[in-house]
Write a structure and sequence with these properties.
By secondary structure, this protein is an alpha+beta fold. Helices cover 26% and strands 32% of the residues. Helix 3 packs across helix 6 and helix 8 packs parallel to helix 10. Strand 32 and strand 33 form a beta hairpin. Strands 7-4-1-2-3-13 form a six-stranded mixed β-sheet, sandwiched between helices. The chain has a six-stranded antiparallel beta barrel with strand order 19-24-22-21-25-26.
């Protein structure tokens, strides 16, 4: 029996409405579907104005609105277009509850060109305030900051009503613009301690939380910050429109009375005829009371189809024969031993088949088959065959791998070695055959300038020179005089100072005097001497002083390129390019050749500094080519050389895979030779007689074999793996010929 679900197939008449919200920088369009007094959002879209809606031409306005509506209508059936339109408008477009004349003309043109039928309008900020009250269950008091791309509008909301609105172009930061606008609100004793950000693009919460509000703003305490989600304005207008039109938003439970918007198919007015409206205090079941892209009737239909599918499955199960149905209730355990035995016997052919596939390489298996007669007669034969099979594998089919870990003995030796490009390897002469490989790398490096330099101007002034001699004297230019505080000054030009003359009986001489300009011997403000400073000459009969203070001396310290900075750049560049040079050299080393880990020479080519030594700067950069010369040699030559100088005993072997070299004090002797002190290190391992060891551990159990092996000098560990591992049989090693060794060495 199937449940009839035709009751859900009833179709309702569908009507589609458009909510068009026009903001300063963008247009938002929301398509909602009405069926049986219930509405739900179908789709929404937005489009930005190139500058703003206020500066857009009629053509630009039409173009943006048309694109927005087309995007939103893209999900509708091909033969359906929205015409009935509710507008969400800016506060400054409305005056005395009517649309201003200049904006009414724009809306009429939009309606005519795009075939829209105006139903009514709502002020977007008022719709947001009402929707917030509806969401929170009580009228809201807050500062609503609407942020567009380059425009800010701030609304003061008290008890759900818009008290005042201030707008301005965005200047500086968003928070500072809002802060400034709040200062212009009139007759506000206390601002609400809540700021709601209405942006629609990004979350500005953290920016507002981090803002320090002006002390003149009358906040009682630091305001709480919240951010409305994208599309909140359109949802708010839809909620208001649905309430006015007496529709229920899908997910809401209506309360109280409803009111209607009278539709007026006229181009003369877009006003709304309202009756009283009571906002439902119940919160919606889903966010904002909207269900986007989901059809409840479709969900019910899907559930119905699921019920039918389950019923169909039930009918199929009923048709399955009794012996094939799965019975969930457990049967009681059989007490009949024959039934248990027969059940076990029925498994044997499958078990034998698995074993046969596993050991099919053995010739004896291919000729074995399960007799089709009495199952009781087959049991002993099967077990006998199985035992013989396992025994043959145990005796002849097993292999063992023994992994030995050897303790290497490290040895090293230093020798003065010559790498020669013209001779073959000769350990007796400490010569290793080699090749020189050159590569050139280009690069740059930058460092901080560390040099210090004082710059400034020298102080200048005029002194009066006094001559006590009875004859005139000549003082050449660049002569030095010394102040009373031991500062040196240079006389600017040559002068002649007249001789002293008789004055009276009490002062037999009157010194000759001459004025001359002087310049400080060094820079600095300390040379700006006060007036009446005394100066001396090397000739004690001559003196000087200044009637006026010296001036013009200045001094400051600057950062310049030093000699050490230049040297550091050159050293850094060589080091920075070494790794790249090694990689490039390694590409030239083919076959068994090895590169010496150090370079024979590293030479800077043409150097290009962006600043010269002594130039003022904070950083200096060097670009240059660096030539690297390296040595390559055959690894076999090095191994042969190492074996000779390390003097390896016959009982030991040299671990060729772990040889290491370290070259010191490399010097190029000629174009074909380079000398160095070469340290060669490696590991010596004991010689392992694998055949003898295999005989010693053959037939031994694993523990005994491991003890035999680890008792040998320098064997630190022995790991034994036997394959296949046959249960119940003794864990002993196979014959010597079936034992393989693997050698690992440890430092």
């Amino acid at each position: 029996m199937k449940l009839s679900l035709q009751i859900f197939a009833k179709k309702e008449d569908l009507s589609y409405f458009l909510v068009l919200v026009l903001r300063h920088n963008k247009a938002n369009a929301v398509i909602f579907e009405e069926s049986g007094g219930t509405v739900k959002i179908i789709n929404q879209a937005s489009e930005n104005f190139q500058d703003s809606i206020e500066t857009a031409t009629d053509e630009q306005l039409l173009n943006v609105v048309d694109k927005t509506i087309s995007k939103a209508e893209s999900v509708l059936p091909g033969n359906v277009e929205t015409q009935k339109t509710i507008f969400g408008l800016k506060e400054n477009w409305i005056e005395d509850s009517k649309i201003k004349k200049e904006y009414l003309g724009k809306l009429k043109k939009i309606s005519e060109e795009l075939g829209l039928v105006p139903v009514g309008f709502l002020i977007t900020t008022e719709a947001v305030a009402h929707f917030l009250a509806k969401e929170e269950g009580a009228p809201v008091s807050a500062v609503l900051a609407e942020i567009d791309k380059d425009y800010v509008s701030v609304s003061l909301i008290r008890a759900g009503k818009i008290i005042e609105v201030k707008s301005a172009k965005l200047e500086g930061s968003t928070t500072q613009t809002v802060d400034t606008l709040l200062k212009y609100f009139e007759d506000v004793e206390v601002l609400p301690s809540r700021v709601i950000i209405f942006n629609g693009e990004k979350d500005l919460t953290q920016e507002f939380i981090g803002h320090t509000w002006s002390k003149t703003l009358p906040f009682l305490h630091l305001p709480q910050i919240s951010n409305l989600e994208q599309g909140f304005d359109a949802k708010a207008v839809l909620s208001g429109a649905a309430s006015e039109m007496g529709f229920q938003i899908l997910g809401e439970t209506p309360k109280g009375t409803t009111s209607k918007i009278t539709e007026k198919n006229t181009k003369e007015s877009l006003s709304v005829e309202k009756t009283s409206t009571e906002i439902s205090e119940d919160l919606p079941e889903e966010p904002f009371g909207f269900v986007k892209d989901r059809d409840v009737a479709k969900n019910i239909q899907q559930k119905t189809e699921a019920v039918e599918e389950n019923m169909a499955v039930s009918n199929i199960i009923d048709e399955i024969p009794d012996q094939q149905q799965v019975i969930e209730e457990r049967k009681p355990l059989s007490t009949n031993a024959n039934e248990v035995l027969l059940g076990a016997i029925s498994i044997l052919p499958k078990l034998f088949k698995v074993l046969k596939n596993s050991f099919s390489k053995l010739p004896i298996i291919s000729s074995i088959s399960i007799p089709k007669g009495n199952k009781f007669i087959a049991i002993p034969a099967l077990f006998l065959i199985l035992f013989l099979l396992l025994l043959s594998v145990y005796l002849f089919g097993r292999n063992a791998t023994v992994t030995l870990s050897l303790e290497g003995k490290k040895v090293s030796e230093e020798k003065d070695v010559v790498f020669s490009t013209s001779s073959s390897t000769d350990a007796s002469k400490n010569i290793i055959a080699a090749e020189f490989v050159d590569v050139t790398e280009n690069g740059s490096t930058t460092t901080n300038a560390t040099g210090k330099k004082n710059i400034g101007t020298a102080a200048k002034g005029t002194v009066t020179i006094f001559n006590q001699n009875l004859s005139s004297i000549n003082i050449p230019a660049n002569s030095t005089i010394t102040s009373s505080n031991n500062l040196k000054f240079i006389i600017d030009k040559s002068i002649t100072v007249a001789s002293a003359s008789a004055k009276d009986q009490f002062s037999p001489t009157n010194p000759g005097t001459t004025n001359v300009t002087v310049t400080a011997a060094d820079i600095g403000t300390n040379y700006n001497l006060p007036s009446n400073t005394k100066f001396s000459f090397s000739d004690s009969s001559i003196a000087a002083k200044n009637d006026n203070p010296f001036s013009g001396g200045t001094k400051k310290s600057i950062t310049v390129v030093s000699k050490d900075d230049v040297a550091k750049l050159e050293s850094d560049l060589i080091k920075n390019l070494e790794e790249k040079a090694r990689n490039d050299v390694s590409k030239k080393a083919s076959g068994d050749r090895v590169i010496l880990p150090v370079f024979v020479s590293e030479t800077l080519g043409k150097k290009d500094f962006d600043k010269k030594e002594g130039d003022e700067t904070s950083k200096v950069t060097l670009k240059a080519d660096v030539s690297y010369k390296s040595i390559t040699y055959n690894k076999s030559d090095l191994i042969s050389f190492a074996k000779t100088i390390l003097q390896i005993q016959d009982s030991l072997i040299f671990d060729e895979s772990r040889i290491a070299t370290n070259a010191k004090n490399i010097k190029v002797k000629s174009g074909s030779e380079a000398g160095t002190t070469l340290e060669i290190s490696g590991f010596l391992l004991p010689k392992i007689d694998e055949a003898n060891l295999a005989k010693q551990i053959s037939g031994k159990n694993i523990t005994t074999a491991q003890n035999i092996l680890t008792n040998i000098s320098q064997i630190s560990n022995a790991n034994i793996n036997i394959s296949p591992n046959i249960p119940l049989f003794p864990k002993t090693l196979p014959t010597a010929g079936k034992i393989k060794f693997s050698i690992n060495s440890n430092e």
